[in-house]
Amino acid sequence: MADLYCQYERTPYFDRHSGMTYEEYHQAIEKSTCLYIGNLSYFTTEAQIYEFFSRCGEVKRVIMGLDRFQKTPCGFCFVEYYTEEDTEASIRYLNGLKLDDRPIRLDRDPGFVEGRQYGRGKSGGQVRDEYRLDFDLGRGGFGRVCQVAGAVDIEAAQSASRRSGGIYASGGVSSRNEELDKRFKNRDLTRDRDEDDKSGRKRNRESGDENDEEARARRRRGRGEDSDSD
Question: Is RNA-binding tagged as a keyword (predicted)?
Fold first, then answer.
């Protein structure tokens, strides 16, 4: 059984929208210096990508993947190097490493063409994010269709997330929310106790001041009575 795992190789990426046959596509990428980068966080910046991929050579340019309607990052990009050697080194050493705490996927690409920077999903983003059930904070939460419908099958989301190692796999959104609620409640209770303590100390000081003033007045009256008797 172990031999089966050792013999497994990932199927090479093929863009069916490229207009090329499978053979033409893979001939085109053999000498290409362009890479497709997937599984990015929506919040990863172009500057971070430049810095990350510069580890393997000089980066020619980065083309950010954008939501077709919102024109905001949607989780992928294209990276171009100047040389084939740097491109190959990037695939060899950076594929699967974490960028912004996410393991990224690198695939050779035949070359960027205007228009490919936009998501192909019906909602404007990537197709993979349309029907995603697991909660992925780095990619907008639940899938777009689930968000639009306003109803998420939590049990299905939890099951899918556990299989993919998502947020539910480590305790779940509900348990994390409960923990946060407890922290906020404890913080509010502590704040209320502090306010009560401050109010109590203030009342004690005011009461003490009043008592001191009364005592001083009595002493003054006593001294006045003594002087009158003399």
Answer: yes
- Find residue 36's DSSP bridge partners: 78, 107
Helix (H, G, I), strand (E, B) or coil at 78: strand
Pairing of strands 73-81, 102-103: unpaired
**pLDDT single digits (tens) 69-117:** 999 999 999 999 999 999 999 999 999 999 999 999 999 999 998 998 9
Helix (H) or strand (E) holding 69: none
Range of lowest pLDDT (1-5, 104-108, 131-135, 203-207): 1-5
Closest CA to 81 of 65, 64, 61, 96: 61
Task: Report d(CA 11, CA 6) in Å as an integer.
Answer: 14
User: 184 Cβ partners below 8 Å, 6+ apart?
Assistant: none
Q: Which of 95, 63, 94, 97 is nearest to 80 (CA)?
A: 63
